[in-house]
């Protein structure tokens, strides 16, 4: 018998992706609306309806991206996170190559897998950049990975990270950014600043069918509050709803109106389920919600920056990789695709 091949460790950072140029918007929207895990459309009509939806929403979406520089910075930020993570692992004595794969845009997951194969990786940690699990994000990414890795030869040992919403380093990084932003207010006393944790929305149907996302978001907020002043008022809301179905409530824009009517003058929005800046932070919060807050009478509106390449966040990612490599992580398992959602 020959010797076993030396371990070559890889890490795959996974995100959904976003259009980088105006001409990317329509094909990106088609990918988005075609995914049965993300948008529920009738099976036989999914692709033609996705094509129609992409055409209908193209102009609006292009206008949004035009206001944040012409395209999404998500790929650039994720690639920077990959470089920082690789360096952090190297500093800890763990040699690994870090790759980037996107579910809905370039570099698509199959492109990332080709890179991984060409580098001879035989042990792969998959790290979705979604702290809280949802079938629409992490679930969709793993469904695609399973499809493209079904017949891998030689086989790659895959270590799947499914959620990390309770990781102490992640919470510490968030708390650090919240504290920094609170100190920038005209009146930095905690009781005079209202924190609004804003998570990406999800249709209620997914939660009824067992998606743990809402529960994990709520747990993240509760755990994060342990790192913050006890007397700071707070609330939780959901943003980015699309279509006529019922979504998780309260919505962020409705919460802003309610807070203004209660006389809140200093509002700090914390994007709780976003670890990278993209259209939901740079446009929806920074431009749209800021304008609504000022129009409603809120004097000072701020947003906590996304984690991006914050050193504490990168160390948290490195810790996740090492914990899973050692098999000492508290692994939580969720269905990658529920029959009722497929």
Task: Describe the protein's architecture and organization.
- It is a single chain.
- The chain is of the alpha/beta class.
- It has 3 domains: 9-16 and 72-162 and 311-326, Rossmann fold (3-Layer(aba) Sandwich), CATH 3.40.50.1400; 22-66, no CATH class; 168-303, Rossmann fold.
- The protein is 43% helix and 13% strand.
- The chain is built from 11 helices and 8 strands.
- The strands form 2 sheets. A 4-stranded parallel beta sheet has the order 2-1-3-4, sandwiched between helices. It has a 4-stranded parallel beta sheet with strand order 6-5-7-8, sandwiched between helices.
- Strand 7 (266-271), helix 10 and strand 8 form a beta-alpha-beta unit.
- Helix 3 (74-91) crosses helix 11.
- The chain is globular.
Entry keywords:
alpha/beta, Rossmann fold, four-stranded parallel beta sheet, 8 strands, 13% strand, disordered C terminus
Tell me briefly what this model is.
The protein has 342 residues and is an alpha/beta fold.
Helix and strand arrangement:
Layout (H helix, E strand, L loop, with lengths): L8 E7 L9 H10 L11 H21 L7 H18 L5 E6 L6 H10 L4 E6 L9 H12 L7 E4 L7 H15 L11 E7 L3 H5 L4 H13 L8 E6 L12 H10 L4 E6 L7 H18 L3 E4 L7 H16 L16
Parallel strand pairs: 1-2, 1-3, 3-4, 5-6, 5-7, 7-8
Helix pairs in contact: 1-2, 3-11, 6-8, 6-11, 9-10
Largest sheet: 4 strands, parallel
Radius of gyration: 20 Å
Can you tell me the overall shape?
globular
Note the total helix count. Answer: 11
- What is the SS-derived class? alpha/beta
| Averaged pLDDT | 91
The CATH C-level name of the largest domain is Alpha Beta
Uncertain regions: pLDDT < 50 for 5+ in a row? 336-342
Order of helices and strands: EHHHEHEHEHEHHEHEHEH
Strand fraction band? 5-15%
């Amino acid at each position: 018998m020959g010797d076993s091949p030396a371990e070559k460790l890889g890490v795959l950072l996974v995100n959904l992706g976003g259009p980088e140029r105006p001409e990317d918007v329509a094909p990106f929207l088609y990918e988005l609306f075609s995914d049965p895990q993300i948008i529920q459309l009738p099976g036989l009509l999914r692709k033609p309806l996705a094509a129609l939806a992409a055409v209908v929403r193209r102009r609006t979406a292009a206008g949004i991206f035009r206001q944040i520089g012409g395209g999404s910075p998500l790929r650039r930020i994720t690639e920077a996170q990959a470089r920082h993570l690789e360096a952090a692992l190297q500093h800890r004595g763990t040699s690994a190559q870090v790759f980037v794969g996107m579910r809905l845009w370039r570099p698509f997951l199959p492109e990332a897998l080709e890179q991984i194969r060409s580098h001879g990786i035989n042990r792969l940690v998959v790290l979705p950049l979604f702290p809280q699990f949802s079938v629409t994000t992490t679930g969709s990414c793993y469904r695609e990975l399973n499809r493209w890795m079904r017949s891998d030869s030689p086989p790659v040992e895959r270590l799947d990270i499914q959620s990390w919403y309770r990781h102490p380093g992640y919470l510490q990084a968030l708390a650090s950014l919240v504290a920094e932003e609170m100190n920038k207010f005209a009146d930095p006393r905690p009781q005079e600043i209202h924190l609004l944790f804003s998570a990406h929305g999800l249709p209620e149907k997914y939660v009824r069918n067992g998606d743990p996302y809402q529960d994990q978001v709520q747990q993240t907020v509760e755990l994060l509050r342990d790192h913050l002043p006890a007397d700071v008022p707070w609330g939780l809301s959901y943003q980015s709803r699309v279509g006529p179905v019922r979504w998780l409530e309260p919505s962020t824009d409705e919460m802003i109106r309610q807070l203004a009517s209660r006389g809140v003058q200093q509002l700090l929005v914390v994007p709780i389920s976003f670890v990278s800046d993209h259209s939901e932070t740079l446009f929806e919060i920074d431009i749209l919600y800021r304008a609504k807050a000022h129009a409603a009478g809120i004097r000072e509106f701020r947003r906590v920056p996304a984690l991006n390449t914050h050193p504490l966040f990168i160390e948290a990612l490195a810790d996740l990789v090492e914990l899973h490599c050692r098999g000492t992580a508290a692994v939580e398992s969720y269905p990658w695709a529920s029959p009722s959602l497929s």
